[in-house]
Design a protein that fits this description.
Layout lengths: L4 H16 L7 H7 L10 H5 L5 H19 L6 H25 L5 H10 L6 E10 L1 E2 L5 E2 L1 H16 L4 H8 L3 H4 L8 E2 L5 H7 L11 E2 L3 E11 L3 H35 L1
Antiparallel strand pairs: 1-4, 1-6, 2-3, 5-6
Helix pairs in contact: 1-2, 1-5, 6-11
Length: 269
């Protein structure tokens, strides 16, 4: 069964809604944006490389093409809702193409990357961590633990480690994160840029081998130990630095491109 809804259902609903509510704004593009229609993957080879297309989906694509020919031959393309959908989809595709062109214009050199890394110390480093988790609310034993009791327990566990017990052993016996307790609380290596800010703010300045104070997370407290830290290099950080540069610079590039286009239009008048 082919699903054409992501492309045209909202414009069709828009046309019907306009008949029932004539006072509402005529803006099918806003409706599509509200429905999160996204064409960015069309211009992203990285995403395209990871989209698996099955034989049945290829057959569906041919059927979609055939139905489009039916729409043209039967004059359906002239319907108001179809025209609105096609115009909005066209604007979305063109806008994404322009946005992608601006993204591609951000081409930092190795020196640019190194300077950015230096300006954001720790953000692109790789951290090897262990943690001990103490839950607030329901626990593995079936009890319910208030926040103050969870904090007190986390502090007692930290004191045990400070008294000579190995972090790994305490994590194995007491951590309430079942997925990591058996591994002594070991977490997958994380970059600072991919770490939750609530935890990164504690970890970024932590000496290797040190343990944080109890850190409040969404569901409880964490004791975090920094096992090792690998400083960022231009090669290891390039992708993440580029993403941060895009996030910072793209709004200005878009605003400038729009301003230049508006100036061209004004000059032609």
């Amino acid at each position: 069964m082919i699903c054409l809804a992501p492309f045209f259902a909202d414009a069709t609903s828009f046309a019907q809604d306009r008949q029932e509510n004539p006072g509402k704004s005529d803006d099918p593009l806003a409706y599509m944006l509200g429905a999160h229609i996204d064409f960015s993957w069309l211009f992203d080879p990285t995403q395209l490389d990871h989209i698996a297309v099955s034989p049945s989906e290829r057959r569906d694509a041919r059927q979609v093409e055939a139905l489009a020919r039916v729409a043209k031959s039967q004059g359906i393309v002239q319907r108001a809702d179809v025209r609105a959908a096609r115009q909005a989809a066209d604007q979305l595709v063109l806008a994404e193409a322009a946005r992608r062109s601006l993204v591609n214009s951000i081409q930092p050199t190795d020196a640019d990357i190194a300077k950015w890394i230096a300006a954001h110390p720790g953000r692109y480093d790789e951290y090897r961590l262990r943690h001990i988790f103490v839950a607030i609310g329901p626990t593995r034993g079936g009890a319910t633990r208030p926040e103050r009791e969870a904090l007190a327990l986390a502090n007692r566990l930290r004191a045990r480690i400070g008294g000579g017990e190995r972090f790994e052993k305490v994590a194995e016996l007491a951590s309430e994160d079942a997925s990591t307790a058996a591994e002594g609380g070991a977490l997958s290596d994380l970059l600072g840029v991919t770490m939750d800010e609530a935890f990164y703010s504690y970890v970024k300045d932590l000496p290797v081998g040190a343990i944080t104070q109890p850190v409040r997370g969404p569901e409880g407290f964490h004791l975090i130990k920094l096992e090792a830290r690998q400083p960022a290099t231009v090669a290891s950080a390039r992708y993440w630095v580029e993403q941060d540069m895009i996030k910072e610079r793209l709004p200005g590039l878009i605003a400038n491109a729009i301003a230049q286009e508006n100036a061209k239009v004004a000059d032609r008048r």
